[in-house]
Structure to design on (848 residues):
């Protein structure tokens, strides 16, 4: 933790017991404040999930929603279906996707030591699109080239293709990270692979029927609304596994955040930490992209928000903070995208940045620590 | 990525993504212009317009039953076809006749009592032109297959069971098929194109939802919307799953694309059924989707009869076109950023042009969709073409073309002013009826085209959708 490191330095130089105690007290207060923030945010997340289940384009009385959630039955069968099959999976997907993208962003920002890193720099998104494209090429019948296959095997087909694509690109970047020393090189390799793969997709799109392209466009929007329970059965455990990896490597990430040589001197196996972290981030971002389509901004912004709000760069604090805040931001975006009174649903990717970017700017400007957090 | 909202994550495709997007966007606009893709077109185009004009012209053009009155009065089908709502007596008579085996006609409304071995669908359809759907009849159910429910997608199967009779076991080829009770009592339509089919089959009263009301032309449908009987479930392009589920439609016919929300609907028990008439490469194939829609309402008799007359009048007109000695050379489409998007040589536009006695400049091409061409390639091939049809929807005059790009002036058709588009019937918002009614009445489209190239062959015909753009 930056503050504790600073505290030690000061304490050493002053070398008086009283000051050290004061510092420790400050530290204790800070942690209390963090606990309070965390509890507040967790409460907010719970409220937002409840709101997401209670609110939708069809108005269902709150008491009915509660009855459906608690007892599993409501006044109308259609209401039950709406709450159980539409709203619940959407709320859960939003919370999971926000958490997953946020944590992936946090991991990548730390490991690349770059505040601009997010899941897209690894080409994961491009990989997912290419996965879809590749399956289409293989599955395409004579003459059909692209965007077939989006209906292939129903909905899971798209997700499977996207996951494989994201995974392959992730593996490529991983392999690079094992070969080369410099993380900047790995970052560049990730970007290049991303461009390369995106170009392949572009070529496929260019030589395909515009009718088929239309189908691809639908996938490219990014939305929490298309994820069903059967898809959640895959999405949730995968995100859980990715979050678990992140949760188990917080100390390693803390060490890495202080610099690779420092981490090495502490006995950290830097290479394996990289591999595990990039692998985990690929899993998180890949699986979310596969099911919900490309969703930008969250991966980049949520870690910064968390650093600013919690005034910390300790991953033991940040990781759970990002999980909760990612869920919050995603849910708010999802709720805003279907504001009552507006007939149409706004595209999620517009909303995330539209409401998120100003918030991040304000938070960053008001919190110097937010900008200092990751640059050691 | 193509015509979309603001939300696309550009970094996905790199900095030149906007170019790509612009290109694709154009592609779809072109497709619209070339008429390759009526469905897309419907998405782009808004609104209602007069259908009386079309109705009036139909009579003079070809002796084909007009949507409502004409076909009711003309021939009486073997069974009750009309008015499910106002003629319950007729329906009951069908119902009552069922227990004593062998109904003489399909059950048009309500349910039937089950008796084993009885053929509940004495009226059947066979498919002649359409490639993208098939119907197989069994005693009390029919199996509908759509080989390509989305572009390039895997085949889907639907089991349509006569209401009141047991569904067959979903094993073997029927595994995983959606089961739908027929005749369907409520339908949501994802595209405007099949709406005229509902009108022709006299089942508009079963329509309970449309994706977007602003896109619609068919008068009976507009009246029903006006009356508040229809839910608009995808006004902004995004399917509102809650609105669909709340309305509990018996089926939802898609726009032929797999929308991200459809899995949710399927899981919630809504029968999501493909509507991909726009993938048919032939004009009559598209129109034959009348039968596809009819199958869900047990209206095979009406569909077969109506389609037969359309088919016949198309054949008569095509014969006129085939007998032409002087075939004028015709080009289609428009240019975007140096790429010319023409109708593919095997597209339904190309087929219409051929049948209208024209020599389409890209007839030797094999594409069924739109054909992106380098400008110079197209210029060399088409600069002497006498006619230019299916141009940009945004041009109100020939001069508008040159205002957009002076290179259009290089074409002979531009210079002679022989520039035609299907924009004659449109409402104040610019919605084109061609994209809706033009699909179900290819014979009338063909008559329009014949009138352009060989006016003396169809002297009686007056233009329905096509018009010559004014010079200024």
């Amino acid at each position: 933790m930056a503050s504790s490191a600073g505290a030690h330095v000061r304490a050493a130089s002053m070398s008086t017991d009283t000051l050290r105690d004061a510092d420790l007290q400050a530290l204790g207060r800070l942690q209390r404040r963090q606990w309070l923030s965390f509890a507040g945010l967790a409460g907010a997340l719970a409220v937002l999930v409840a709101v997401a289940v209670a609110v939708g384009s069809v108005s269902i009385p709150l008491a009915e929603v509660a009855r459906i959630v608690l007892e599993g039955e409501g006044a109308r069968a259609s209401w039950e279906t709406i709450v159980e099959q539409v709203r619940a999976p959407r709320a859960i997907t939003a919370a999971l996707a926000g958490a997953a993208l946020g944590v992936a962003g946090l991991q990548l920002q730390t490991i690349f030591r770059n505040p601009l890193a997010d899941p897209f720099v690894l080409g994961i998104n491009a990989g997912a699109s290419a996965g879809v494209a590749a399956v289409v090429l293989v599955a395409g019948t004579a003459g059909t080239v692209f965007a077939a296959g989006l209906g292939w095997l129903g909905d899971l087909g798209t997700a499977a293709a996207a996951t494989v694509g994201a995974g392959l690109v992730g593996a490529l970047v991983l392999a690079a990270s094992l070969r080369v020393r410099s993380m900047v090189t790995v970052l560049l390799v990730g970007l290049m692979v991303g461009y390369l793969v995106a170009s392949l997709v572009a070529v496929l799109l260019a030589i395909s029927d515009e009718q088929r392209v239309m189908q691809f466009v639908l996938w490219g929007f990014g939305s929490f609304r298309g994820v069903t329970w059967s898809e959640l059965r895959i999405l949730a455990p995968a995100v859980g596994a990715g979050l678990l990896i992140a949760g188990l490597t917080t100390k390693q990430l803390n060490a890495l955040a202080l610099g690779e040589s420092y981490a090495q001197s502490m006995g950290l196996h830097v290479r394996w930490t990289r591999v595990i972290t990039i692998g985990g981030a690929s899993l998180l971002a890949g699986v979310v992209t596969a099911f919900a389509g490309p969703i930008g901004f969250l991966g980049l912004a949520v870690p910064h928000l968390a650093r600013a709000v919690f005034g910390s760069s300790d991953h033991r604090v940040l990781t759970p903070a990002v999980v909760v805040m990612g869920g919050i931001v995603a849910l708010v975006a999802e709720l805003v995208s279907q504001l009552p009174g507006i007939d149409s649903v706004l595209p999620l990717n517009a909303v995330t940045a539209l409401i998120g970017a100003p918030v991040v700017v304000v938070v960053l400007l008001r919190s110097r620590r937010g900008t200092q957090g990751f640059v050691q | 990525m193509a015509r979309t909202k603001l939300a696309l994550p550009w970094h996905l495709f790199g900095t030149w993504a906007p170019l790509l997007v612009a290109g694709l966007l154009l592609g779809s606009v072109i497709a619209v212009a070339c008429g390759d893709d009526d469905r897309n077109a419907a998405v782009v185009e808004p609104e209602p317009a007069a259908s009386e004009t079309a109705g009036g012209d139909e009579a003079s053009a070809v002796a084909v039953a007009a949507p409502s009155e004409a076909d009711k009065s003309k021939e009486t089908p073997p069974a009750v076809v009309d008015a499910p709502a106002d003629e319950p007596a007729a329906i009951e008579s069908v119902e009552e006749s069922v227990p004593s085996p062998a109904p003489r006609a399909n059950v048009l409304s309500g349910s039937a009592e089950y008796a084993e071995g009885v053929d509940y669908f004495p009226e059947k359809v066979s498919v002649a032109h359409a490639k993208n759907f098939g119907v197989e009849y069994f005693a009390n159910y029919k199996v509908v297959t759509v080989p390509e429910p989305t572009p390039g997608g895997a085949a889907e199967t639907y089991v349509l069971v006569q209401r009141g009779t047991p569904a067959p076991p979903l094993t073997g080829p029927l595994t995983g098929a959606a089961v739908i009770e027929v005749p369907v009592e409520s339908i949501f339509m994802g595209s405007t194109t099949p709406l005229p089919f509902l009108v022709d089959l006299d089942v508009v009263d079963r329509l309970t939802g449309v994706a977007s009301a602003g896109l619609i032309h068919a008068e009976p449908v507009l009246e029903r919307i006006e009356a508040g009987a229809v839910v608009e479930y995808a006004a902004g392009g995004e399917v509102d799953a809650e609105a669909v589920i709340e309305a509990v439609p018996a089926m939802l016919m898609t726009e032929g694309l797999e929308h991200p929300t459809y899995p949710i609907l399927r899981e919630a028990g809504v029968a999501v059924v493909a509507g991909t008439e726009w993938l048919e490469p032939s004009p009559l194939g598209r129109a034959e989707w009348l039968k596809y829609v009819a199958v869900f309402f047990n209206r095979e008799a009406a569909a077969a009869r109506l389609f037969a007359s359309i088919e016949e009048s198309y054949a008569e007109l095509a014969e006129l076109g085939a007998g032409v000695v002087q075939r004028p050379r015709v080009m289609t489409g428009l240019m975007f950023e140096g790429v010319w998007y023409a109708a593919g040589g095997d597209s339904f536009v190309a087929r219409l042009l051929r049948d209208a006695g024209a020599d389409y400049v890209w007839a030797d091409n094999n594409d069924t969709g739109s054909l992106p061409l380098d400008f110079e390639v197209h210029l060399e091939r088409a600069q002497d073409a006498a006619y230019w049809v299916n141009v940009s929807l945004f041009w109100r005059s020939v001069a508008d073309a040159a205002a957009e790009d002076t290179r259009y002036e290089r074409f002979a058709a531009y210079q002679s002013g022989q520039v035609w588009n299907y924009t004659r019937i449109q409402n104040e918002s610019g919605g084109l009826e061609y994209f809706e009614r033009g699909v179900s009445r290819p014979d009338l489209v063909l008559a329009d085209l014949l009138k352009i190239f060989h006016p003396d062959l169809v002297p009686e015909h007056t233009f329905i959708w096509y018009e010559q753009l004014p010079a200024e």
